[in-house]
Amino acid sequence: MTDTPNSSNNPKSLFWLEVVDWFRSKDWSWNHLAWILLVALTLFRFWYATTLELVEDEAYYWLWSQNLDMCYYSKGPGIAWTIATGTILWGDNVFGIRFFSVLLSAATGYWVFRLGKLLFNERVGFITLLFAGVIPIYAVGSILMTIDPLSLFFWTLAAYTFWQAKDQDRILPWLLPGLWIGLGMLCKYTNVAQLLCFALFCLWIPRYRSHFAKPTFWSMVFVSLLSLTPTIAWNAKHDWITLQHLVDRGKLGPDDSFTFKFNELTQFISEQALVISPLFLISILISAGLLLRSSGKKDLLNTQWKFLLALFAPLILFYLVLSINEAGEANWTAPSYLAGIVMLAAFVCHKTATKPLLRRFIIGAAALALIQTIALHNTAVIPLSKLGIPDPLDRVRGNRQLAETVVTIQQEQGATFLVARRYQTASLISFYHPDRPQVFLPKSDRIENQFSFWPGYDELMKHEHSALFICRGEEGPRQSLVDEFADVRLIKEFHTTFQGRMIHLYRIYLCSYYHGQGRK
Fold first, then answer.
1. pLDDT 10s per residue in the chain (520 long)?
2. Do β-strands 417-420 and 467-472 pair in parallel, antiparallel, or remain unpaired?
3. 35 vs 118: CA distance, rounded Å
């Protein structure tokens, strides 16, 4: 009978025991733990970012980076120049496009930790970083290269430097938050709301009201607005199209009636609960409410609480009011929750010592958020579609398959040009097509997106040329396209698939005998 190996003579067991002993022998600080967490998350995100196809907006912004400008139809130049830098470093591939998303998310995590530490202590900073790592919207945003990683990075830097500047009468410290706000606005116009947050804080705290009578506060405002110079110059040449787009997006035009729509309000609230995690959102709101109720009492931490409340509340309330008429996108409020999670982390550390039930609720909320975030990273193992729940990762599936199908049909038909009904479809095909061709949109009577500023196919198309027209879902060709070709006929209808499940329906039309009589 042979001896059974045990931990005393098993090399693997000895190795792990030595590892455990080494960790126990170290005097770990919250700062060390924050760095370990941050590095681990960043390495994972760099790997995971390469496993997903681009979403529509990423492909669209990639096209912007191929056509650099001072501003674009709906946003400033920040996203385009950032992607251009990433692709110069790593090539026109998914990693190059998403490189700065992961890097900026790591930097945001670092400064969120520093903000919690600056306002309270290292423990609060670490718990803030931990909360940020488990919230679904930040987990997704740390991988996809959209405007949000840029916006959140500059929002956090502005908050950190403003807190340092608030007790200064010199102008120089106030220029930094102004610079970060300005750079943030070049990426996402929502960042201008931070000026309102800082103004509210100064009004709330009596000793800081004097800054309104000094050049300090106004120098910050001036520098931030000065950053919009390229955006203003570009829009002045293009009939202020970005301003019109923002008004239309928010349903704030003179022809839009502002009426109470219960379904829009409930949509806004439910989407906020989904992207933040339901119990986590409740925890943040509870902490905000309790702190607001006690804000008039004598408290050594009173100024810090008010600062975080001033950063948290305005944007949330603004979009809540707008959602009475029209629900906005779920990510529009993302900057506010940065202050919300710092506030919640500090609340856990300083206010729940005598409230064990509330502390357990918040811990449970964090656990639920973590489960959601883990599930979001691999929905293939969760049959969401069978439960009637849309799979959020369908956005990053089937796009390469779409382009491959288009390439095959283009070669079969000998089509010269590609035209898509939507800018999202055109962007994805352009990126995943092996030749990276310019994919056009049909002509339109009005400016609809950035494609409206780029050359159209009418400048290149000849009578003998043909084009493939690609549309998604039940859409068909626009009348302007039908008017330009003698023959427009459906030649292919197919679904992109994932693990045998249909994702998106596409239709491909062959457009022949161009005569160029479409509307301009």
1. 444 444 445 655 555 555 555 555 555 688 889 999 999 999 999 999 999 999 999 999 999 999 999 999 999 999 999 999 999 999 999 999 999 999 999 999 999 999 999 999 999 999 999 999 999 999 888 999 999 999 999 999 999 999 999 999 999 999 999 999 999 999 999 999 999 999 999 999 999 999 999 999 999 999 999 999 999 999 999 989 988 888 877 666 666 667 778 888 898 899 899 889 999 999 999 888 888 776 555 554 589 999 999 999 999 999 898 888 888 788 889 999 999 999 999 988 887 777 888 888 988 999 999 988 988 888 777 666 666 677 888 889 999 999 999 999 999 999 999 999 999 999 999 999 999 999 999 988 889 899 999 988 888 888 778 899 999 987 888 888 888 898 999 999 999 998 888 899 999 999 998 887 644 3
2. parallel
3. 16
**Cross-strand partners of 136:** none
pTM for the whole thing?
0.90
Burial (CB count within 10 angstroms: exposed 0-12, middle 13-18, buried 19+), residue 282 = middle
In the chain, helix, strand, coil percent, each to 5?
Answer: 65, 10, 30
What is the dihedral sign for C-alpha 96, 54, 449, 462?
A: positive
The answer to whether residues 163 and 119 touch, using CB atoms and an 8 Å cutoff, is yes
Cα gap 508→331, rounded to integer Å:
33
**SS3 for 82?**
helix
Question: How far, CA to CA in Å, does 168 sit from each of 161, 171, 190, 215?
Answer: 11, 8, 27, 11
Which three-class secondary structure state does DSSP give residue 468?
strand
| Residue 68 contacts residue 55 (beta carbons within 8 Å) | no
Contact yes or no for 144/186 (Cβ under 8 A):
no
Name the nearest CA neighbour of 83 among 104, 99, 103, 67.
Answer: 99
Note whether 425 and 471 are within 8 A (CB).
Answer: yes
Contacts of residues 447-451 at CB distance under 8 Å and 24 or more positions apart, as own/partner, are: 447/73, 447/241, 448/423, 449/73, 449/74, 449/423, 450/60, 450/63, 450/64, 450/72, 450/73, 450/74, 450/423, 451/423, 451/426
Query: For the chain, how many helices (H) and strands (E)?
Result: 21, 4
Q: How far separated are the first and last CA of the chain, in Å rounded?
A: 90
DSSP state for residue 506 in the 8-state scheme? E
Find how far residue 455's CA is from the centre of its chain: 29
Q: Which two tokens stand for residue 494?
A: 């197919």
